Amino acid sequence: MELLHFTGQVWRPPYEASSQLLQVTAGCTHNKCKFCSLYHGTKFRLSPIAEVEEDLKVIQDYQPRARRVFLTGANPFALSYNRLLDLGLLIRKYLRHCESIGMFSRISDIKSKTVEELQNLRHLGFDSISIGTESGDDDTLAMMNKGYTANDIIEQCKKLEEANIRYNFVYLTGLAGRNKGEQNAVNTANAFNQLHPFTINFVSLTVFPESELYQEIQCGNFVEATEHERLLELRTFISNLCIETTLLGNTVSNTVPFVGMIPNDKVRILNELDSAIRNAGEDELRLYRDSIVSL
Ligand code: SF4
């Protein structure tokens, strides 16, 4: 059996489990977020068109009826408008049933595209993307070298809305550090409330030795939030959210897993968090965090 080209670690959101993966990039164009070790050791690489075409021929043989393709790499949306157009046309050539294409994107990757270009991409099937926003609090975003502000998130995602491209967010609890979770939660909720993310995915900061943040912790420049603080932060964030969206908090990094839609499930989720805040011991929760070997 022919093998597809994949370089380094391949990540996809849990809700893309049934999508056909296709490598068009590897690594991250930014690679500077302090907490990140996801693509450690993988330099950004653009797949040559001939290589993508080779993979599409294999997929055509094994998954000829694939309906959704998820492009891999940390942020394939960084590719130029013309490159994405070429890729969309190539996917359509080989996978005639494919009607939907997704990928990860950074906020700055949207910035380089006009609304008209985004609309054209949408017509070609680029209908939903996932963005590792992590926070909407400017202090936290700057401290972690995310490379954009809350206003950038709002401006760029409004362009996606105009182009009818669905987007999913990530909120990373604990990212602001000790005693800053409440501020992070309120400011992030204020930013997200101005938008319409299809889902918000919750991850809790889990620091691995390959990250820059790990070194900062060793030097005493960053103090991690306690596990209870993170649950309180999550509680504040969710209680301040006043949009309709789906909350997905069921990754390995969540000490208290939850899933639900708001506004309908808001009270239930807050009750679940309250119960954990009352009953779960800090040591027990931290022990769980320390046992996580990979996200
Ligand atoms: S968090 Fe995302 S954008 Fe930041 S370095 Fe990691 S992969 Fe790149």
- The secondary-structure class comes to alpha/beta
Distance between the termini: 29 Å
Domain module count: 1
Specify Rg, calculated over alpha carbons: 19 Å
Query: Fraction of residues in helices?
Result: 40-55%
Q: Biggest β-sheet, characterized?
A: 8 strands, mixed
Anisotropy-based shape: globular
Mean pLDDT: 96
Architecture overview:
The chain is of the alpha/beta class and 295 residues long. It has one domain: pyruvate-formate lyase- activating enzyme (Alpha-Beta Horseshoe). Helix content is 40%, strand content 18%. It is built from eleven helices and ten strands. It has helices at residues 49-62, 81-94, 107-111, 115-123, 138-143, 150-162, 181-192, 212-219, 227-240, 266-279, 282-290; strands spanning 20-23, 25-26, 45-46, 68-72, 100-105, 126-134, 166-173, 199-204, 245-249, 258-262. It has an eight-stranded mixed beta sheet with strand order 1-4-5-6-7-8-9-10. Strands 2-3 form a two-stranded antiparallel ribbon. Strand 4 (68-72), helix 2 (81-94) and strand 5 (100-105) form a beta-alpha-beta unit. Helix 7 packs parallel to helix 9. It starts with 19 loop residues before the first strand and ends in a 5-residue tail after the last helix. 41% of the residues are buried. The model has no long low-confidence stretch (mean pLDDT 96). Bound molecules: iron/sulfur cluster.
